[in-house]
Amino acid sequence: MISSAAIIANKAPLRRIPGAGRKNAHDYVYVNVNFMYITHITWRTKVNTVSERTYTISELAKEFGVTTRTIRFYEEKGMISPLREGQKRLYTLADRVRIKLILRGKRIGMSLQECVEFIDMYDPEHNNTDQLHSLIADVKERRAVLLHQKKDIDAAIAGLDEVQSLCERALAKGTTAHARSNPEQS
Predict the structure, then answer these.
(1) Is the separation of the CB atoms in 28 and 15 below 8 Å?
(2) What is the pLDDT of residue 41?
(3) Distance between CA atoms of 79 and 73, rounded to whole angstroms?
(4) Is residue 46 part of a domain?
(5) Full domain range(s) for residue 93
(6) Do 66 and 21 fall within a single domain?
(7) Does the pTM of the predicted model rise above 0.85?
(8) Mind listing the pLDDT tens digit for each residue in 87-128?
(9) To bridge 110 with a disulfide, which of 40, 74, 114, 137 should be the other Cys (CB 3.0-4.6 Å)?
(10) CA angle, 88 as apex, 84 and 92 as ends, to 5°?
């Protein structure tokens, strides 16, 4: 599907139309038209109001403690879509919030795809009920998994503490036993 077409007319020297008998201005025509088809365009209007603040990629990277490459990656994946001013990217408050939510989701163990799915469920007209119920269920499941892993980690640490204690006691007994059997070296 073609979403836009741009017509570019190039100026070139006029040429005589083959088969024309007379030599007047109407006999000479040259038109070179190139059609450039552009697909997958995201149309956004420029921010014209002062009330909507925009952010640069550097400002967002610094604020969230990520690299500019990370933010560009999110853009490449279609998770955010900044405005463009020439080569400069301008991020809206909505882009900033999406980045914040993506990073929060990653911090709790979600994949990027899962983060985007939950963010895209946002539906303020219906109080976000579906989004919130789904997120609560996911959080409960992740919490249960993490608590189980924590229990396993605590058990492993207790086992390491026990082994370390046994080794330290054995060393203490060995040093004392060695000193009793060799009184001359003490």
Answers:
(1) yes
(2) 41
(3) 9
(4) no
(5) 57-120
(6) no
(7) no
(8) 888 999 989 999 999 999 999 888 998 888 888 887 767 777
(9) 114
(10) 55
